[in-house]
TrEMBL record:
<dbReference type="InterPro" id="IPR029066">
    <property type="entry name" value="PLP-binding_barrel"/>
</dbReference>
<protein>
    <recommendedName>
        <fullName>Pyridoxal phosphate homeostasis protein</fullName>
    </recommendedName>
</protein>
<feature type="domain" description="Alanine racemase N-terminal">
    <location>
        <begin position="11"/>
        <end position="224"/>
    </location>
</feature>
<dbReference type="GO" id="GO:0030170">
    <property type="term" value="F:pyridoxal phosphate binding"/>
</dbReference>
<dbReference type="InterPro" id="IPR001608">
    <property type="entry name" value="Ala_racemase_N"/>
</dbReference>
<comment type="function">
    <text>Pyridoxal 5'-phosphate (PLP)-binding protein, which is involved in PLP homeostasis.</text>
</comment>
<dbReference type="Pfam" id="PF01168">
    <property type="entry name" value="Ala_racemase_N"/>
</dbReference>
<feature type="modified residue" description="N6-(pyridoxal phosphate)lysine">
    <location>
        <position position="39"/>
    </location>
</feature>
<keyword id="KW-0663">Pyridoxal phosphate</keyword>
<comment type="similarity">
    <text>Belongs to the pyridoxal phosphate-binding protein YggS/PROSC family.</text>
</comment>
<dbReference type="InterPro" id="IPR011078">
    <property type="entry name" value="PyrdxlP_homeostasis"/>
</dbReference>
Length: 227
């Protein structure tokens, strides 16, 4: 956790760096949305960011998001909450109720669960397919070689609710080739949204066309060990 004023300063720095990276890439800075990743940080930190004008937040656990965000949303109805973590099928209904975007659709069983949940809840959040661009066994995301087929079937099933793709490159590699791969997959399928880039690499992601960057530590400071 950082002190409130430090948080506001860091948020302003990240916004400034997004603008710089976009201008370097000859892109409109407004085409890049900052998702402030508030996982493990208390609602009071989210409040500070809200007071500084931030509205889009990312959480990776449904339970934590459900504990923090409904009260904040009552206060700030224009909040947009993105679920960015691996999602269990038994959390699909809660996820569909809570989220404005689910960034981690990565397998047919989850697609089934989300479709069923959307039917029963009567709303469907925007969806991104997470691609495991590094084919890392411990990571979430559809394996690279299955991605094209999965994107096609999700497109047919979810129509315009499917907005784009998300990736988390391997921590030990240059992220740029992974960002390029994700961009080319999105282009192939005509998907407009590219969620890529975190605290360590969001300028590189913007250079490769990111439209969403998911930044936690650079805004909120180091995460506490437990939420
Ligand atoms: C935690 C997390 C982030 C933010 O990571 P930082 O390095 O703290 O910016 C981004 N994306 C996902 C999927 C995450 O789980």
């Amino acid at each position: 956790m950082v002190t409130p004023s430090a948080l506001v300063d860091r948020l302003a720095q990240v916004r400034a760096q997004i603008e710089t990276a976009a201008r370097h890439a000859h892109r409109d800075p407004n085409a890049v949305t900052l998702v402030a990743v508030s996982k493990f940080h208390p609602a009071s930190s989210v409040q500070e960011a809200l007071a500084a004008g931030q509205r889009v937040f990312g959480e990776n656990r449904v339970q934590e998001a459900a504990a923090k965000f409904p009260a904040l949303r009552a206060q700030y109805p224009d909040i947009r909450l993105h679920l960015i973590g691996g999602l269990q099928t038994n959390k699909a209904k809660d996820a569909v109720q809570l989220a404005d975007m689910i960034e981690s659709l990565d397998r047919p069983a989850l697609a089934d669960a989300l479709a069923k949940a959307a039917d029963s809840v009567g709303r469907m959040p925007d969806l991104l397919i997470e691609v495991n661009t590094g084919d890392e066994p411990q990571k979430f995301g559809v394996p690279k070689e299955q991605a094209d087929a999965f994107i096609r079937t999700c497109r047919q099933r979810f129509g315009t609710s499917l907005k784009g793709l998300m990736c988390i490159p391997p921590a030990t590699q240059d992220p740029t080739p992974h960002f390029q791969l994700l961009r080319s997959m999105a282009q192939t399928h005509g998907l407009p949204v590219l969620s890529m880039g975190m605290s360590a690499d969001y300028p590189q992601a913007i250079a490769q066309g990111a439209t969403l960057v998911r930044v936690g530590t650079a805004i909120f400071g180091a995460r506490p060990a437990t939420p």
